[in-house]
Amino acid sequence: MHRAQPYPQEFRDDVVNVARNREPGQTIKQIAADFGIAESCLRNWIRSADVADGARPGTTAAENAELREAKKRIRLLEQENEVLRRAAAYLSQANLPGKSCTRSCASWPATGSPSR
């Protein structure tokens, strides 16, 4: 589940831009207070913007979402593969020669088709 973001992306981008181009002596804490957000929040926004801009190593929010979706798809495919593997094993055991026949099978003639 994705939680709602309380601040629009445009606002975040503007605050990060102000923080990146701050006057000498002006702190991140002061900028955060001026915009009414927590200092840690602004630092997280700056870190995320640095990753998105390629200035810092890491994965972007879009890449993280894509990775989550890919992992979800892999889990689903692994489950489907397991079901198919078990079905194939079951069916191959049921068709082994010499395997005991069901009651309906005993009434079949030697040709292998059911008697009428």
From TrEMBL:
<dbReference type="GO" id="GO:0004803">
    <property type="term" value="F:transposase activity"/>
</dbReference>
<dbReference type="GO" id="GO:0006313">
    <property type="term" value="P:DNA transposition"/>
</dbReference>
<dbReference type="Pfam" id="PF01527">
    <property type="entry name" value="HTH_Tnp_1"/>
</dbReference>
<dbReference type="InterPro" id="IPR009057">
    <property type="entry name" value="Homeodomain-like_sf"/>
</dbReference>
<protein>
    <submittedName>
        <fullName>Transposase-like protein</fullName>
    </submittedName>
</protein>
<keyword id="KW-0175">Coiled coil</keyword>
<feature type="region of interest" description="Disordered">
    <location>
        <begin position="97"/>
        <end position="116"/>
    </location>
</feature>
<dbReference type="GO" id="GO:0003677">
    <property type="term" value="F:DNA binding"/>
</dbReference>
<feature type="coiled-coil region">
    <location>
        <begin position="60"/>
        <end position="87"/>
    </location>
</feature>
<feature type="compositionally biased region" description="Polar residues">
    <location>
        <begin position="101"/>
        <end position="116"/>
    </location>
</feature>
<dbReference type="InterPro" id="IPR002514">
    <property type="entry name" value="Transposase_8"/>
</dbReference>
